[in-house]
TrEMBL record:
CDD domains: YtcJ_like. The keyword Hydrolase applies. One of its GO terms (molecular function) is hydrolase activity, acting on carbon-nitrogen (but not peptide) bonds. Residues 54-528 form the Amidohydrolase domain. This is N-substituted formamide deformylase. Gene3D superfamilies: 3.10.310.70, Metal-dependent hydrolases (3.20.20.140), Urease, subunit C, domain 1 (2.30.40.10). Pfam families: Amidohydro_3 (PF07969). Transmembrane segments: none annotated. Keywords: Hydrolase. The gene is nfdA_3. Its EC number is 3.5.1.91.
């Protein structure tokens, strides 16, 4: 019997800081039968000490709910962790040198896989040519996805594996990219895939992530990839995995064990690859991106999912794409009734380019915004990629988290890993210190979106919080003094008044060290302990 299948221990954690709405000054917690049984003060903890299987002395550490990353591509994340990562390459020449070294070190790989190049940060602003990649790899098959995973550069040998693939030079996008990615990933052996999934899941729990939402689909991965991942997560200690399948086939999603026919069901592409669908042309291109689904298709899918009792969801980034989704969901509500649509908690992934009207529509229709604050940290600001693509004025409108919260739109935070790394505290920091000040939210609200918000996004309102009866999914952190941080200084001053009963969180001011995960527990089972602790 594995540890994950054995009954969880009854545990008392004491002499720390427990982040709980049940008691904002809690220093101790009891976990029993995989659930939080009690939270309270150190003095009351003595009464439990003799009746538990284990006592953990926190020695001042912070205990929080485990994070939920609401948008992950697990196998691709693992392949990036174990394969070629170009995200830190400062130039095209440096990227080519890394490709050359990687190819030399992997003489037996059927296909070389890499990820993370970003011409927006390179001095000459251009990707490697096919000839350059052919030379660097010794004319072997190579697939290199751009950082946003919406385009890729490949070698001639990989194109030879894709019937009918276009031969013009330059990054592949849309259907040509999907075909090239499918060919590259088909060459990954089942063992390589399992190793990559294990690496990604182990990395997640080392960061205090207790649940991930896997966003699979026929244009992203494969049915076997999703079912193998769900089986692995069920059989081995690690994070919970909730699967989504991005296809307009409700029966297929149900057959695969997915929570919804949702996730990266593409309505458009991305800003970085000029494929996000926008109303007005790009500032640096004479077109408006790509539209993959129209309003009628969105409406039909939402109706089908709602009637089947599954979540619908869409990848929508540009304002034209978001409008198509809103209009489609509204049409579905006119057919089925608003109450049924709201109860289904359909999701929009990314939802970057919003207007006040679309924010209001999200609230009206009960849509969850599954968003990635690290996108703003990476691409925001007046000199960032968003401004290059859209101009400074339009770029300032992106990722309006404060407006979404004010309207009552549920937020669920994620990374879209490997687009941006698994990094939960960094994600909370990115939302609290958004590059556009009017879009900033408090650390507390951001933390809630990355813990409870992920559970609510899958229909669970009783989890993602340390309170009696909640699942015992928690993480223990070494961190500095706890504070309350809010965009409005008056709120911060009120919140630090003991009478407010607001539990503190780590100081996430940019430049300060982020908390270090010491232990992660899922369902009462310890799935990670930092070596030496």
């Amino acid at each position: 019997m594995s540890e994950s299948s054995a009954p969880p221990k009854t545990v008392l954690l004491r002499r720390g800081e427990v982040h709980s709405p049940a008691d904002p000054f809690a220093t101790a917690m009891v976990v029993e039968r995989g659930q939080v049984a009690w939270v309270g003060s150190e003095g009351a903890a003595d009464a439990f000490a003799d009746g538990v299987d284990e006592v953990i002395d926190l020695d001042g550490a912070l205990v929080t709910p485990a994070f939920t990353d609401a948008h992950v591509h697990t196998t691709a994340t693992g392949l990036a962790l174990t394969g070629l990562d170009l995200s830190a390459a400062p130039s095209r020449e440096a990227a080519l040198a890394l490709v050359r070294d990687f190819a030399a070190a992997r003489p037996h790989d059927r296909v070389l896989l890499g990820h993370g190049w970003d011409t927006a940060r390179w001095p000459d602003g251009r990707p490697p040519t096919r000839a350059e990649l052919d030379e660097a790899t010794g004319h072997r098959p190579l697939y290199l996805s751009r950082i946003d995973v919406h385009s890729a550069v490949v070698t001639t040998a990989l194109l030879d594996m894709v019937p009918g693939a276009p031969r013009e030079d330059g990054p592949l996008t849309a259907d040509a990219h999907h075909a090239a990615r499918a060919a590259a990933f088909a060459a990954v052996t089942p063992q390589q895939r399992t190793d990559a999934q294990r690496a990604a899941l182990a990395h997640a729990v080392s960061l205090g992530i207790g649940t991930i939402h896997e966003c699979g689909g026929p244009k992203i991965s494969s049915a076997d990839d999703l079912t193998d991942l769900l089986r692995l997560a069920a059989e081995e200690p690690g994070p919970r995995v909730v699967g989504y399948w991005a296809e307009e086939d409700v029966a297929k999603a149900r057959e695969l064990g997915a929570a919804g026919a949702a996730g990266d069901l593409f309505v458009d592409g991305s800003f970085g690859s000029h494929t996000a669908c926008v109303h007005q042309p790009y500032a640096d291109a004479d077109h408006t991106g790509r539209a993959y689904l129209d309003t009628a298709t969105v409406a039909a899918h939402v109706v089908a999912c709602t009637e089947a009792g599954l979540q619908a969801g869409f990848h929508a980034i540009g304002d034209a794409a978001v409008d198509s989704v809103v209009e489609g969901v509204r049409a579905a509500a006119e057919k089925l009734g608003l109450a049924r649509i709201r109860a289904a908690r359909h999701r929009i992934e990314h939802a970057e380019m919003l207007t006040p009207e679309t924010v209001a529509a999200f609230a009206e229709l009960g849509l969850t915004a599954s968003v990635q604050p690290a996108f703003d940290a990476l691409w925001g600001g007046e000199d960032g990629m968003y401004a290059q693509r859209l101009g400074v004025e339009r770029a300032r409108t992106l990722n309006p988290y404060a407006a979404l919260l004010r309207a009552g739109v549920p937020l669920a935070f994620g990374s879209d890993s490997p687009v941006t790394p698994l990094d939960p505290w960094g994600t909370v920091r990115a939302a609290a210190f958004h590059r556009t000040p009017e879009h900033r939210i408090s650390v507390r609200a951001a933390f809630t979106a990355h813990t409870r918000g992920g559970w609510r996004a899958v229909g669970r309102d009783d989890a993602g919080v340390l309170a009696p009866g909640a699942p015992a999914d928690y993480a223990v952190w070494r961190t500095a003094e706890l504070v309350v941080q809010a965009p409005d200084d008056r709120v911060a001053r009120w919140s630090t008044d003991p009478r407010s009963g607001t539990p503190g969180l780590p100081d996430l001011t940019p430049g300060r060290d982020l908390p270090v995960c010491l232990r992660t527990v899922v369902g009462g089972h310890t799935v990670f302990v930092r070596p030496g602790e």
